[in-house]
Amino acid sequence: MTDSSLLSSELELQQQEELYQQLLLQTVEKLQTETPDSKVIRPHPGMCVKTLSEPGKDKVFINICQSNSVPHPPELSREELVELLQLDDPSSYRVPMSLGEPHTEVDNNSQGCTAYDVVINQEFFQKCQKDPLFQQFVILVSVEGLENKYNLQLNREWKVLKNRKFLGSISEQNIRTKSRPVIQELQSEPDFTLFVEPPTGEPEYLIAEIKLPGVTSSRSLVLDVGEDRLVLTARPSLFHLDIFHPFLINQENSMAQYNNGTQILTVTLPVVSSGNL
């Protein structure tokens, strides 16, 4: 004979578990709704920079816009900026920015041109407006950001338009709301090796071998593979790696494997094409 009270208790426990799972799911969905990974902003105009694309000499306009929704970069004095610009690689200082898609506009001569919207923190923008050195620095950072994202080559002899704060109309942009690790928290860049397979002829794979001493599990690794970029963050060792490479990669078929014994991460990236992208 089966004790009916035991069956009843088991049924109640099952119902309670189902109710708990349902409430948990509702809570997660609510949190995802209330705290999305990104949000849409409409930035304010700031200044318009005119330059030329290389080698075609086509007109390019950069609308450097401002918004409080973009994080403020780390504090930087004028003396620190001067020292930074004297370094071979001043990219250790990062300016958070949102890079918009290119849009076709018409200039004052009724000729077609391309414009890009770059959004930086409003307070930092105002600081750059007060000091010509900071203004030139933020223009340089914007130019390099657009070059890296859109595989451009832009002339460094730009001109800030005096009577125009933007060209065309400022579009809404979708920006991240969940912050990524900031540069000050990162301890070091890991040792890595890049090589292609086969070694001669047309490359089929780009392989990255990254040494991560002290990382005991792949669970602490966050890897982001772009078409021409590889970004890796490892916690709690706080390694950070951000590599641009001269290949166009098949992101969907890329593979990564971490060896706990050697503590080496091997990333295999199928090459679609190579050259100056």
Describe the protein in words.
The longest helix has 31 residues, at 4-34. Strands 2, 3, 4, 5, 6 and 7 form a six-stranded mixed β-sheet that branches. By secondary structure, the protein is α+β, with helices and mostly antiparallel strands. Helix content is 24%, strand content 34%. The chain is globular and about 60 Å long.
Radius of gyration: 25 Å
Average pLDDT metric:
79
Q: Pairing-aware structural class of the strands and helices? A: alpha+beta
Q: Would you list the SSEs in sequence order as H and E?
A: HEEEHEEEHHEEEEEEEEEE
Poorly predicted regions = 179-187
Topology:
Blueprint: H1 4-34, E1 38-41, E2 44-52, E3 59-67, H2 78-85, E4 98-99, E5 103-106, E6 112-121, H3 122-130, H4 132-150, E7 159-160, E8 173-176, E9 192-197, E10 205-211, E11 221-225, E12 229-234, E13 239-244, E14 247-249, E15 255-259, E16 264-274
Parallel strand pairs: 3-6
Antiparallel strand pairs: 1-8, 2-3, 2-7, 4-6, 5-6, 9-10, 10-16, 11-12, 12-13, 14-16, 15-16
Helix pairs in contact: 3-4
Keywords, please?
277 residues, alpha+beta, 5-stranded antiparallel β-sheet, 4 helices, globular
